[in-house]
User: Fold this.
Amino acid sequence: MPSASEAVSPSCVCSAQCWDGELPGLEAAEQFVGIFITGSHFSAYEDMPWISALMTWLHDFLQREHSTRIVAVCFGSQASHFLISAPSVT
Assistant:
């Protein structure tokens, strides 16, 4: 299975190990049909570098115009809820 940072065809399934610092580029992710953010042994509210990096990536991705669908379960839904419900910081 190719990593999310490799060039792939639209029908390909990719994976990214965000706990290892592997996240797809925002432009590459815009080409995905969907993104599936799964569960974890950790809470999305924990103060860990990889969680902060994922939250920043997800925030930046949600600010862009794209048609990529996002499915989030367990940890992923915690992260999504946190980003959607967090007060805006200006």
Observations:
- The helical segments are 26-30, 49-62, 75-85.
- The longest helix spans residues 49-62.
- Residues 18-85 form one domain.
- The radius of gyration is 13 Å.
